[in-house]
Amino acid sequence: MPLSEPLREAARAYADGEWEASLGLLDAVDSTLVNHLELAYLLGLVHARLEHWDTALLYLEQVVTGSDEALRICQCRLLLSWIYLRTGRAKLAEYELERLSAAGFESVQTCTGFAYAAWEQGRGDDALRWYEKALTFDANNANALNGLGYVLAATGKDMARALACCRRALAQAPDNPAYLDSLAWACHQSGRSDEGKELIERALVLCPDHAEILEHARAMEIDGGGNHG
Fold first, then answer.
1. Among the four residues 53, 161, 184, 209, which has the most C-beta atoms within 10 Å?
2. Is the separation of the CB atoms in 10 and 26 below 8 Å?
């Protein structure tokens, strides 16, 4: 169904990255004059971008339960799983991912989601299996490479491959703090202390308040200001 003009305008603002403007336009829409599922879908996307997690969940759930468009439902379930992972609700993320898998929808994104959820629940072997599967969809996917490298390093299963995977991920996004942190930890675990400290200091500059990066920095005897202990 074609979007009405108010929704088209809000969708254009969203596509341009003007999320606050898009939300303002959507809030001004008379919900009785537009398709309520299209409105809920756009509101879910915008609130997710603005990190209004609980509000985004409410709108996305409306689409999942009310829509008959399989692709739209899958997209919303994938976004729901991502929000649940971001907010520490790994079991709920797994539920959404399992529904996607049951619908025949598997991708590098669903596999990395399963992997992260497994890792968060202490299932390291499952996490490794899912990251490996993600790489069968895209052997160069930076997120999957980083995740696999980090789990290999954290579990001490294959340090050479851990370093190689983390380096490949970081090469694609040199200023990604999560990738810097993963390679720093792999270096630390491999006895490459100087390189690890340099990398974690770069991660701290980019993301000074991230709990896991701070934890790794302390383990490497670097304080939150990037100074060696």
1. 184
2. yes
Query: Which tens digit of pLDDT belongs to each residue from 153-163?
Result: 999 989 999 99
Per the DSSP assignment, residues forming a β-bridge with 222 are: 228
CATH topology of domain 156-229: 1.25.40
pTM over the 0.85 mark: yes
Average pLDDT over residues 86-105: 96
Enter the DSSP assignment of 207: -
What length is written for the chain?
A: 229
Please state, in angstroms and rounded to a whole number, the distance separating the CA atoms of residues 122 and 158. 18
Query: What is the per-residue burial (b if ≥16 Cβ within 10 Å, else e) of 88-99?
Result: ebbebbbbbbeb
Both structure tokens of 132: 């490996």
Model pLDDT, residue 4: 76
Cα distance between residue 123 and residue 155, in whole Å: 11
DSSP 8-class letter at 228: B
- Distance set, CA 177 to CA 47, 63, 66, 148, 209 (Å): 24, 33, 38, 16, 11
Residues 39/30, Cβ–Cβ less than 8 Å: no
Give the largest CA-CA distance in the chain: 64
